[in-house]
Amino acid sequence: MTTVRDIDARGAQHCETTALGVLLRHQGLDLSEPMIFGLGSGLSFVYWDSKNMGFPFLGGRVKPFDLTRNLATGLRLDLVIQETTSPRRAWENVVAALDAGHPVGLQLDSYHLDYFTSKVHFGGHVVALYGYDDHDAHLVDTDQQGGAVSTSLTSLARARAARGPMTARHRSFTLTAPRNRPSPQSRIIPAITACADAFLNPPIANLGHRGIEKAGRLVRTWLQRTDDPQRDLPQAALLMEKAGTGGALFRNLYRDFLAECTQLLDSSHLRTGHRLYAEAATLWTEAAALITEAGESGDAQCLVRAGTVLCDLSRTEREAMQALSRLGGEAPSALQP
Questions:
Q1: Span 98-145, pLDDT tens digits
Q2: What is the separation of C-alpha 164 from the centre of its chain, rounded to a whole number of angstroms?
Q3: How far apart are CA 80 and CA 92, in angstroms?
Q4: Residues 112 and 211 in one domain
Q5: Would you tell me which of 43, 66, 77, 96 could form a disulfide with 62, CB atoms 3.0–4.6 Å apart?
Q6: Of 123, 126, 206, 107, whose CA–CA distance to 165 is shortest?
Q7: Does pTM top 0.90 for this prediction?
Q8: In a domain, 71, yes or no
Q9: Contacts of 186 (CB under 8 A, 6+ apart)
Q10: Where is the DUF4872 domain positioned along the sequence (predicted)?
Q11: In DSSP terms, which residues pair with 278 in a beta bridge?
C-alpha cells in the first residue's frame, strides 16, 4: 500500500478546484475554493449545441484544465503534465509521483468511477489521487461525491483510458510551489481582468455575454428541441445547479471570490462587480427553476420567462465585467489592503 503523507482530503463543490485544493495544501498553500476558482480565471459561459447532441448544454466555466493552467501561470507554480496513450506508462507516471511523496491530479471520465451514482459520461472530470493498494485507488473528489473516496484500480484505468468529448490521454499532473512565488493577493487583479476581457470580447457568439444573450433567445424553443421535455429540461437545469457548479452555474463561486477580494482590496469597481454577480447568481437559480418547471409542466411561457431572465443576465454580467475590467487602471493607492 502506498499513501502520500499529510494529505488534507477536504472535498469541495467543484471537481477541478477540489483537486487543486488538495495539491496546493500539500504544498503549504491553503486557499479557499472561490479564491482558487477566481485566481484561475475560471468563470465563462458557453451555449453548446450541435446535430449530434441530444440537447443543448449551458456551460459556466472555462474549458477543462484551463483553470489549472491559468492558476499555475499566475502563481508561478511548477505544473508538470504527463499524457500518454499507454495505460501501463500512465500508471507508472502516477506511481512515480506518489512514491516521491506528491499527490497527483487526474483528468478522466467520471462515468467509470465506482462511487459515481449518476452514470453520465463526462471526460473533463478531475480528481486528486493520494494512494493505492492492491485493489483500490484512494481519491479526493467533491463533497457531493463523498470527499475522500475509493474506486477499484480497474475502474480507474477505464476512466483514464476513456475517449470522447473533453477527454485527455491518461492526463496526470503535479504542482510544486517555489519559495519565491508571488502572493495570491498580488494575482487577484490580473486574474480578474483576464477573465473580464475574455468574457467581454468572445470570438464567437456562443461565448461570454453574447452567449448568454443567445441562450436567452434559443431557450424559448427548447420544448420543440426535444422528444422528452420532462427528462431533458429538468436535466439541463440540474446541470446548472447541482453538477459540481457550486450553484447558479458557477456564479455563486465567483460571487464569493469577489466578496473575498473586497476584504483584501479597496476598490469601488470590485464592489460593483461583487454586487452585480450577487444579483446574477440569484437570476441563474431563477432561470434554472423556470426551465425545470417548463419541462415538468409543458408550459412554454416558463421558457419565455427564462429567456427574459437570461437576457437580463447578459446585461448584468456584461456590466459587472465592464466594472471589473477597470481594475487594471486604478491608482495603486486604491488597491492597498
A1: 999 999 999 999 999 999 988 888 999 999 999 999 999 999 999 999
A2: 19
A3: 15
A4: no
A5: 66
A6: 123
A7: yes
A8: no
A9: none
A10: 155-324
A11: none
Comparing CA positions, the residue from 26, 241, 247 lying closest to residue 128 is 26
Question: For residues 8, 13, 16 and 20, what is the CA-based torsion angle, rounded to 10 degrees?
Answer: -30
| 8 A C-beta contact, residue 325 and residue 193 | yes
Dump strand ranges (E) for 5-77: 43-48, 57-61
Q: How far apart (Å, rounded) are the C-alpha atoms in residues 12 and 317?
A: 25
pLDDT tens digit sequence for 240-277: 998 889 999 999 999 999 999 999 999 999 999 999 99
- Is residue 101 one of the residues assigned to a domain? yes
d(CA 283, CA 321): 16
Domain tally, the chain = 2
Location of C-alpha cell 419565455:
304
pLDDT over 70 at 335, yes or no: no
Domain that holds residue 193: 184-335
Residues in CB range of 118: below 8 A, 6 or more apart: none
Grid cell at residue 279: 444579483
Share of the chain above pLDDT 90, in %: 90
> What is the SS3 assignment for 53?
coil
Encode pLDDT of 158-200 as tens digits. 999 999 888 999 999 999 999 888 999 999 999 999 999 999 9
Single-letter amino acid code for the residue at 98: L
CB atoms within 10 A of CB 25: 18
Greatest pairwise CA separation for the chain in angstroms: 59
112 Cβ contact list (under 8 Å, min separation 6): 155, 156, 158, 159, 162
Q: What is the CATH number of the domain that holds 92?
A: 3.90.70.10
